[in-house]
Design brief:
6 helices; mainly alpha; 0% strand
């Protein structure tokens, strides 16, 4: 029996996605002082609709793979990174966390 999933805020979803994509833990990301900045920056670049789609896809992926790290990694690859729209955005998010820069899509 699976346990119920508490509703996570969009900001919490963004951090959880960033943790999974980058390999950093949430404390490290918060420690950069950039979480809220990047959270606001992303939709300003890609638009609210695509940002919402990314977070929604991530939430669905996380629920399906929760507790099974290899499965979660596979689902992220298949459902997000290989998506023709969301993949470039997710890869740019990783780039943003590592370099502070954004590659033009």
């Amino acid at each position: 029996m699976s346990r119920p999933h508490p509703e996570r805020s969009p900001l919490e979803q963004f951090v959880a996605l960033s943790v999974t994509l980058t390999g950093f833990d949430a404390a490290e990301l918060w420690g950069t002082g950039q979480v809220r900045t990047y959270y606001a920056l992303l939709p300003s670049i890609i638009g609210d609709a695509i940002f919402g789609r990314l977070l929604s896809r991530w939430q669905d992926t996380w629920i399906r793979g929760e507790g099974d790290e290899p499965l979660l990694e596979t689902l992220v690859k298949e459902q997000i990174l290989e998506d023709p729209t969301l993949g470039p955005v997710a890869r740019n998010l990783v780039y943003l966390w590592y370099t502070g820069g954004w590659n033009q899509l």
